[in-house]
What we know:
By secondary structure, this protein is α/β, with parallel strands linked by helices. Helices cover 34% and strands 22% of the residues. The strands form 4 sheets. Strands 5-6-7-8-9-10-11 form a 7-stranded parallel sheet. It has 2 domains: 3-117 and 353-375, Enolase-like, N-terminal domain (Enolase-like, domain 1); 121-351, TIM Barrel. Strand 9, helix 9 (244-252) and strand 10 (258-261) form a beta-alpha-beta unit. It is built from 13 helices and 15 strands. The radius of gyration is 20 Å and the shape is globular. The longest helix has 19 residues, at 97-115. The protein starts with a strand and ends with a helix. It has helices at residues 60-75, 86-89, 97-115, 119-122, 142-155, 170-179, 198-202, 222-230, 244-252, 269-281, 295-304, 354-360, 369-375, and strands spanning 3-21, 24-38, 41-47, 129-131, 134-136, 160-163, 185-188, 211-213, 235-237, 258-261, 286-288, 328-329, 339-341, 351-352, 361-368. The protein binds 2-succinylbenzoate and magnesium ion. The site of 2-succinylbenzoate has 10 residues, from loops.
Amino acid sequence: MKVEAITLREIQMPLVHFFETSFGRIYSRSIILVTLHCDGVDGWGECVAGEVPYYSSEWNESAWATIVRYLAPAVVGKEIKAGRDVPALFSKVREHRMAKAAIENAVWDAEAQKMQQPLWKLLGGSRREIACGVSIGIQDSVEQLLEKIEHELAAGYRRIKVKVKPGWDVNVLEPIRARWAEILLSCDANSAYTLDQLEHLREFDQFNLLMIEQPLWNDDIYYHARLQKELRTSICLDESITSARNAAIAIESGACRIINVKVGRVGGFSEARKIHDVCQQQKIPVWCGGMLESGIGRSHNIALSTLENFRLPGDVSASKRYWKEDIIEPEVQVSDDGMIAISDTPGRGYRLREDLIERFTVRKETISARALVEVK
Ligand code: OSB
Ligand code: MG
């Protein structure tokens, strides 16, 4: 496929309900979308960098600048056979994985359309439906959280994950377990603890959690291995896992028993598949994380989740939990037994609502082969 041009845009979408983690609360999302124009086909990718560099050092402004200056010029004007060939084109650029993923995934998206194949098949998936969980942020009160959980369980979700931080953890898990003794329950600390809090973290063991996600520093593996030895509860790493290589290190050192795969965090579908394979060989189950994506990133997460070793319910849930109107149709729907059915349509499996995308756009820039030649 000849990549003729790339259009970058920023869209703004208000969240239906605020989302709060250990590093703060947001009410609205600002999302960078990539459109790759090639041979009459448009491939789309979503950049999961956030509005602020809190979850990761990458954020929207760094991603935008890196794409315009370095990543788009590495693909525009080129003949690219497949999504799997994209990482090599970016090899000189260190890190900036979310920016890279937005483009690489757009290439896969275009490739699937060109090949008239569902994206999930192209990625090597086999599941015809995927199991869904929800990630529920920190609320204004425990009562409000319990109400939300009740609502999501009634909707059919198969695993409840709650965000925790010092002061909103054991006191929250306790009433949840008292009310729902049997549900699959996990928690996500987004690095809110240190090893000094080991005695406190041991208290989490009494709640029969499926896992505790990223309790310690965002870039740490070593101290998570120390902590895992002390806890009965399985540790799941999110932030710390950035490549198949460091996933292997985490597994070998005993830092976790479960891994959360986010395609943006690891630099794109190619690396996400490698992590999936490493984990499968080592008998470590993975699940698909979420970054409050619009329908484009959500549809890509769904495709990835069809790979065999995505054995646990992911944070991939219905569009309506996030958005009044999503930018795809049909919107992502979850059945009343907590599953998403996988479409057989070629490509990502969801049509785009380009009218809505246009309405939500606040910034747009096109990088075309011709413009690049003129600059040279
Ligand atoms: O740690 O998984 C996380 C959202 C933003 C940043 C980090 C995380 C999350 C979520 C939300 O947990 C998952 C979702 O519903 O998309
Ligand atoms: Mg997480």
